[in-house]
Design a protein that fits this description.
The complex is a heterodimer of chains A (205) and B (271). Chain A has 205 residues and is mainly alpha-helical. Chain A contains 9 helices and 2 strands. Chain A starts with a helix and ends with a helix. Chain B is elongated, with a radius of gyration of 33 Å. The chains are: A mainly alpha (205), B alpha+beta (271).
Chain lengths: 205, 271
């Protein structure tokens, strides 16, 4: 159904060319929002939508953008989109907007966005850019979810806010690992994900 | 300043610069360069850049202003509804089954206005409850909340907290029931009747002369923020209300007025 190139554009960033573990972009927000699974999921979805949208817009504008101010133009597009999304959320999904308050702002500074705009959208057509945006957004989301899963499970014994580790374990001396709640642990976990990812991909070659 | 593009007509070598070189560095022939004119407008010229940026910024500004204008009534309604829900939360009322706005209107029937603060008066099953809006500082941003007091202006009936950006799983736990429930039934005055607030302290520590609740472990700064907020608001900002002087009622409600003056007398004697 999809050509090989389209497949590569969409699915490449999920594994072989993952923005977080291969290109090591977007680490800052990966540390900030992965204490719990829920904000990580929402952040992943928000970034996916915004990367895809800004990729399409910049791709459509790419032949008209003056080269010397292109970064600023890209930034204006992203900032306008983020503001737009947050305004719409505040009007129609106030609870979600409140939960996302900080993270929405953080999206503007997410390196993945500028990276994709500069490296892909500026030189490719709108359809490919849309796929690239979706792929990279999801690639980012996957890593966030993996890290948040481990951190919430071992840090709080919960998943999505529900208690997973039974009281029985606590009664027999099990304790939540407070270290998991620290940002440093997120970095170590991202490191572990990179390690596993590299070992698997090296075996394939 | 924009550079021109010259292409060698023999080998296709491309040279960027103000003028074409005499001899092509690739195929060593002279006089073969042809300037390649760009189609349409030169996107690198200063004029184009300035006009482009101006148009882009104007479009974005108009778009955002428009969206903001169109959505602001809905957003304000949401903010108001959120505030009403939080006040209902402080009053420990389950609003999930009905319309929160209607429940709120039925319960909260008066607002007392002071210099800096507003106090909401609710009538809950015949008992008067005062709701005090709070605001303070957490670790990353502002924290706030609503404190519901019994008619004696001393016993805490319920409390609700909110925050802008406390750490999820740590400081953000101030909005959860286990933390909030601790405040219920605590007294904000000491035995002598002076307002001393309630302290939020690590387990094992003991407050001197005031009642206390347990802090959230791992969220020291947020917990201290809650403690400081309560102290600031109760001891300083709500002095006038807690001292018992009747505020300027927004609506003339004879029962609320009567209740207030009665309390004023009561606490004046204690002071």
């Amino acid at each position: 159904m999809l050509s090989q190139k389209t497949k590569d554009t969409l699915l490449g960033p999920l594994n072989a060319n993952n923005p977080v573990v291969v290109q090591v972009l977007g680490i800052c927000s990966a540390l900030a929002v992965t204490v719990q699974l829920k904000p990580a999921l929402v952040m992943g979805i928000a970034v996916t939508i915004i990367v895809a949208m800004s990729n399409v817009i910049v791709s459509l504008l790419r032949n008209t953008i003056p080269m010397r101010v292109r970064i600023i133009v890209q930034l204006v597009v992203v900032a306008a989109l983020v503001t737009l999304v947050s305004e719409v959320l505040k009007a129609f999904a106030y609870d979600v907007a409140m939960q996302l308050s900080v993270y929405l702002g953080l999206i503007i500074t997410n390196c993945i966005l500028m990276g994709r705009l500069e490296a892909f959208a500026m030189t490719n057509n709108a359809w490919d850019s849309l796929l690239d945006g979706l792929g990279n957004g999801l690639g980012y989301a996957i890593i966030l979810v993996i890290v948040a899963f481990v951190r919430e499970l071992f840090g709080a014994g919960q998943l999505l806010g529900f208690q997973v580790i039974p009281q029985w374990c606590y009664d027999h001396g099990y304790e939540n690992c407070g270290m998991m709640l620290m940002p440093a642990m997120a970095l170590i976990l991202v490191g572990c994900v990179i390690w596993v990812h590299r070992s698997i991909n090296d075996e394939k070659k | 300043m924009a550079q021109k593009k010259f292409v060698c007509s023999v080998c296709g070598y491309v040279h960027y610069g103000d003028a074409a070189p005499e001899v092509c560095p690739q195929c060593k022939q002279s006089g073969v360069f042809v300037e390649e004119k760009k189609k349409g407008i030169d996107t690198n010229s200063n004029t184009y850049t300035i006009v482009y940026s101006t148009i882009l910024v104007v479009i974005v500004a108009v778009l955002l202003a428009l969206v903001s204008q169109v959505l602001s009534p809905r957003q304000e309604a949401n903010i108001l509804l959120d505030k009403q829900k939080q006040i209902l939360g402080a009053l420990k009322i389950d609003y999930s089954t009905g319309n929160p706005a209607d429940i709120y209107m039925a319960l909260v029937n008066d607002t007392l206005t002071y210099d800096k603060q507003e106090v909401y008066v609710a009538n809950l099953n015949g008992e008067t409850k005062y709701i005090l809006p709070l605001s303070g500082k957490g670790l990353w941003g502002g924290i706030g909340g609503y404190l519901a007091l019994d008619a004696d202006k001393n016993t805490i009936y319920g409390v609700n907290f909110n925050h802008e950006s406390e750490t999820p799983g740590l400081g953000a736990k101030i909005v959860e029931m286990p933390f909030r429930e601790q405040f219920e039934g605590k007294h904000i005055r000491n035995a002598e009747g002076a307002v001393v607030s309630v302290a939020v302290l690590k387990a094992g520590k003991h407050a001197d002369g005031q009642e206390q609740v347990d802090a959230i472990s791992g969220a020291t700064i947020t917990s201290t923020g809650v403690s400081t907020m309560l102290h600031e608001e109760l001891v300083n900002n709500y002095q006038e209300f807690l001292a018992g002087e009747a505020g300027h009622t927004a609506e003339s409600d004879p029962t609320a007025e009567g209740g207030l003056t009665g309390e004023a007398g009561q606490f004046n004697t204690e002071d």
